[in-house]
Amino acid sequence: MSHQHQRSRPAGSGTALSEAYDTALLDLDGVVYAGGEAIAYAVDSLAEARAGGMRLAYVTNNALRTPDAVAEHLTELGVPAEPSDVITSAQAVARLVADQLPPGARVLAIGGEGLRVALRERGLVPVESADDDPAAVAQGYGGPDMAWGRFAEASYAIRRGLPWFASNTDLTIPSARGIAPGNGAAVEVVRIATGAEPQVAGKPLPPMHRETVLRTGAKRPLVVGDRLDTDIEGAFNGDVDSLLVLTGVTDAAQLLAAPPRHRPTYVDRDLRGLLTGQPEVAPAGDGYRCGGWTAAVRGDRLVLEAVSGGEAVSEGGGGDDALDGLRALCAAAWTFAGPDGCRLETAKAVARLGL
To answer: Which of 105, 168, 170, 317 has the most CB within a 10 Å radius?
Structure first.
């Protein structure tokens, strides 16, 4: 058990993370690929981790694409994957529905092919209309071209008293052209029309973590993600360890301000972090030291200093790894923070790192 509610600084690891954990539960967008293209170092790092015996599983809140389609995309990018290596929020919501309805029940499917395939896998029958005698409504991301009438169909059924399930409530989804409305925005449309509340399956909620562990058989999983409010909070809720990579949406300032449930066990620049140990962050004077950096709280500011020859120097060299500086800053900020996260002035300290 990781007991992450007590986390006040990033953890160290004397062995490579790919050896310390048996299964990596990898988010996709912002971790493995972005805008359809592989992120730098992802392909080689994952190949090396796999060759060393680590199981790789890909965990996505996007309910649109089927596991077959995701595995095919990964394989094309140079990351060999089988459909069984992919876990989606559509699968998690289908299990949630199947746990509450009899086999063969009809479900009004508001979403794409990934949702319909997942419902069928659980012995449920997807239908398209509120007039097709459904026993529940399941809503998942349907892509940018989903017709507005689908939300009306969901609203009719929910207002008749049917239970409503949502794959996930991510308000936004990244695309090649920028940030687009996600399934959470579509769920809000139906919520406004009905006043109802859905049962939600996806990250960061427990049904998604349960689905992932059931499908992978992971004994010592490591969640790898780029989002604090889905990946890292999902690991916190499942009481498992996590690695935040800085290749997606989270930046250094957001990490320093993270409340306890959003604090990763480890932080690294990209997926190369799987292949190495992680440095210790240790108390030093009135602050914390990691590698060639020390960080402390002075007044209402976070202060970062590079260490040279055992003495702290306020400017210039000594700290050769900006990530060590960030780890030290995390320790100072998280230790000082209240339950809602750090409210200190962090901009100057972060700027020194050039992250």
So the answer is: 168
Our measurement of the distance from residue 328's CA atom to the centroid of its chain's CA atoms, rounded to an integer in Å, reads 23
The mean per-residue pLDDT over the stretch 107-111 comes to 98
Task: Evaluate the CA torsion angle 272, 274, 276, 280 in order and state its sign.
Answer: positive
Q: Strand, helix or coil at 84?
A: helix
d(CA 285, CA 11): 19
Q: One of 22, 27, 251, 340 is an active-site residue; which one?
A: 27
Active site residue 29: yes
- As to burial, measured by CB atoms within 10 angstroms (0-12 exposed, 13-18 middle, 19+ buried), residue 88 is buried
Q: 29, 85, 241, 268: which is the annotated catalytic residue?
A: 29
Q: Quick check: is 268 catalytic? A: no
- Structure confidence by residue, pLDDT tens digits, 5-40: 578 999 999 999 999 999 999 999 999 998 789 999
288 with 8: CB under 8 angstroms? no
Cβ contact 270:40 at 8 Å: yes
